[in-house]
Design goal:
151 residues; alpha/beta; Rossmann fold; 5-stranded parallel β-sheet; 6 helices; 5 strands; binds cobalamin
Length: 151
């Protein structure tokens, strides 16, 4: 089977970490997506411009420097208000510099309210599995539904 789904992979403007993006690019490519990795320190204007030029099946924001809960929220608001992208927008990595569950939950709520469909912080157990399950469900919807029914 040939997949033509494209993922736009990006980060927030202040974040210069790059191995997280490389890891996510490999993971999503391995799952069957065409990945467009915009690289570290991505200016928000570039993300908006790219989404207005070509449609993407989903946008994945990977951020680890701790500013994700602030800049990620601004990016999500801009994606939802300045582009026609209505499909999935996800953020993951280390969204802030705190590790306590209450703070992570509060920032996750803010990010969802800003326009993310889901938040996958490293500190939350099984968040990576949840992301992989969600992405697989989009690629193989029938297989996923069969699995859910069988549970
Ligand atoms: C290498 C590194 C750097 C290098 C980056 C080089 C490069 N070209 O990438 C340099 C030296 C430049 C750097 C700089 C800084 N760093 Co740094 N860095 C690291 C370090 C040691 C490793 C990161 C790495 O490459 N990991 C390998 C990749 C593959 O894994 P990962 O990043 O953890 O990503 C995984 C997950 O987060 C998850 N994931 C990521 N994105 C997504 C998205 C989704 C959807 C999902 C589901 C999962 C997911 O999957 C990945 C694989 O498991 C970490 C500490 C650590 N041990 O993690 C600190 C760390 C990320 N850095 C940190 C900090 C604070 C900084 C600086 C601010 C330091 C400073 N005072 O200058 C600057 C910030 C620079 C900036 N403007 O962004 C902090 C972030 C704090 C936080 N969030 O709580 C960390 C955690 C160190 C620490 N413990 O304090 N850093």
């Amino acid at each position: 089977m040939t997949f033509s789904k494209t993922v736009l992979l990006t980060t927030v403007p202040s974040d210069s970490h790059s191995w997280n993006l490389v890891f996510m690019e490999f993971l999503l490519t391995d799952m069957g997506y065409n990945v467009e990795n915009l690289g570290p320190n991505t200016p928000m204007d570039e993300v908006i411009e790219r989404l207005n030029r070509h449609a993407s099946a989903m946008v994945v924001v990977s951020t680890v420097n701790g500013h994700g809960y602030i800049e990620g929220a601004e990016l999500a608001r801009r994606i939802r208000s300045e582009t026609k992208h209505t499909d999935g927008v996800y953020i993951g990595g280390k969204i802030c510099t705190e590790n306590d569950p209450q703070t992570i939950a509060r920032h996750s709520d803010t990010l969802r309210a800003a326009g993310f469909d889901e938040v996958f912080d490293d500190s939350v157990a099984n968040s990576f599995d949840a992301f992989q399950e969600l992405v697989s469900a989009q690629l193989y919807p029938e297989h996923y539904l069969e699995k859910r029914v069988a549970r």
